[in-house]
Every structure is written in structure tokens, then in C-alpha cells.
Amino acid sequence: MFQQNAQPNALFTRQIRQACENNEFEIYYQPVFNLRTGRVEEFEALLRWNTPDGILSPGSFLRQAQENGMIDVIGEWVVKNVCRDIVKWFNCGHTVPPVSINFSEGEIKNPSFVNKLYAIVSSFGINPNMIVVEISATALDKDYRNAVSTVAKLRDCGFLVSIDNFGRDSSNIKALLDVDCLDLKIDGNLLESAKISKRGFDLVLGTVALLRSLNINVIAERIENEEQLDFVRQLGFNLVQGYYFSTAIRGDEARMYMV
Q1: In this structure, are residues 25 and 33 in contact, taking their beta carbons and an 8 Å threshold?
Q2: Which of 4, 122, 129, 186 is 20 to 30 A from 173 via CA?
Q3: What Rg do the C-alpha atoms of the chain give, in angstroms?
Q4: Which of 90, 85, 43 is nearest to 246 (CA)?
């Protein structure tokens, strides 16, 4: 849909702004379940774009949004609409779990990121601890000092933090000391190594045990069958998400998982 042309920036910018104004974007929520209690510990917010050509996942447009300077516009739309849903849930009398939002490396590096996020969340009267800021381990690897500083500011404001793709490339284990995070997702390639070799299995098993000893929750993603569930149980994961438990659902449907 977004092929390069004579004026890619102007066209794409117009498409993104129109999508925000016309609510062509939509937030879906995937529950994260506690294996011990069976309860939903948090939701992950997932962005979809409803276009005339069909529903697009973020992989179809976020890279171009980053390149064309529109990632902050999309990010602001996501945060505001997640906050609106949280307010709706509270107004219905539910006990609402935190919602995890993925932020790009470019957003995290923006000096105004934390202040802008705090201002938006506060404008809805929501406690910042309702928002889990999910950042990629790649962002930590590329600009460690700035990322650690940003996480510290987020935590000072009351936000929760999650690390995604831990173990991809050369994820810095020192981050476990410097980054105060609620939970962490181990990279899929590292999990695959645990399936094919004892060395890989022992490495992931030890990593999960270390994380749990630091009171960091470890989330297994894309669990689609009983075999996968048994495998991550063996490795010590305590939180799971995936189609085996629930698909990504709209905000009104998410209330079924709330007390």
C-alpha cells in the first residue's frame, strides 16, 4: 500500500494524519495470564490500521512512519486511546490491570518522550502505574546510557517498564541491574535454541531463574498449543500470552477478563 513514489513523505504523512483523525486505527488487547493463578496480569496493546485494502498490522507501516517522522503522531494516538479505554473500564467498576504499550527506539530517544507521556496520561486522570512502557532490548544495546536514563525518568514518574526481545543480538545483562523493570520477554530465537539443544535449554532455564530471583516476571509469547505451554512451564516462565489462551480482542471484549 505504501510504495515509494515521487512524494512519499507528503503522501504518507497525509495518510497517517487522516487515519488518526478518522479513527482508522484501532487498539486490540492481548491478555497476559499468570500461570499460577490463571488471572490476567496485564494487557498488551496492539495497533491495527483499518484501510480499504484490509486490516494492516504495525509491521506494514511503522518502519515507514519512523522514517517519515510520523512515529510520534501514531504513538500519541495510541496512548490517548489506551487511556480512554482504561477510563471506560474503571467507570464500569472493573479492577483494571496495567496495559503494556510498545514504543519504538526513536520515541524512547526523544528528549521530550517522558514528559509528553506523563502529560497525556495525567490529562486522563490515570495513575502512571497503569501503563507499562515496553522497550526493545535493541534500544538498550544501541544507546545504553540514554535508554537507562529514560527508564529511570519513567520509573520516577510512576510508569512501569518492560523489556522486549531480551537475548537478541548481545543484550547487556548489566541492564538487569540498571533497569528497574516489571517484566521481560525473552527473544524467540533464544527460545528456539532451548528446543534444539541441552545447552540452549540450560541457558534459558538459568536466565529465567535469574530473572525470577530478581522479582522480574518472565513472559512467554505466542503460546498456541499445549506442547508449547508445557515447554515454557519447564523453563520456569510465570506469565504467558498467545492464541492458546486468547486472541487479541477489542476493548469492550477485554472487560470479560476483569474482576
Answers
A1: no
A2: 129
A3: 19
A4: 43
